[in-house]
Amino acid sequence: MFCNSPYANLYIRKYDELTGIGLEGAHFRVWKDNTLIADDVVTDKAGFIHIGEQTAGMFQVKEIRAPQGYLLNEETYTM
User: Fold this and answer.
1) Which residues contact 11 (CB under 8 A, 6 or more apart)?
2) Contact 76/59 with Cβ under 8 angstroms?
3) Which strand ranges, in their side-by-side order, compose the sheet holding 35-42?
4) How far apart are CA 47 and CA 21, in angstroms?
5) If we measure between CA atoms, which residue out of 44, 39, 38, 77 comes closest to residue 58?
6) Cα–Cα distance between 47 and 38 in angstroms, integer?
7) Tens digits of per-residue pLDDT, 21-31?
8) DSSP 1
């Protein structure tokens, strides 16, 4: 069964570049069409964040605090 929906899901993953293991505790800020939609969302134990039911648009994602022992990625990603 297929269902078309006007909504999309945004997934963010923070992981260790050498091991590929997801990192818990990374904090991100998310904008949609230059409007802040998530001020401080945090990765779970597997390194994921899920932001559901978003309408189409341009998203920007920026890490605002890295997990303990890791460097902050200061780049803003647009998708």
Assistant:
1) 48, 49, 50, 51
2) no
3) 35-42, 27-32, 59-65, 76-78
4) 8
5) 77
6) 17
7) 999 999 999 99
8) -
DSSP 61: E
Coil, strand or helix: which one is 58?
Answer: coil
User: 10 Å Cβ neighbour count for 73?
Assistant: 13
Residue pair 43/12 in contact (Cβ under 8 Å)? The answer is yes
**Mean pLDDT of the 53-79 span:** 95
Closest to 61 in 3D by CA, of 44, 46, 41, 47: 41
The whole model's pTM is what? 0.88
The two three-digit tokens of residue 33, written as one number: 């069409």
H, E, C per residue of 15-57: ECCCCCCECCCCEEEEEECCEEEEEEEECCCCCEEEEEEECCC
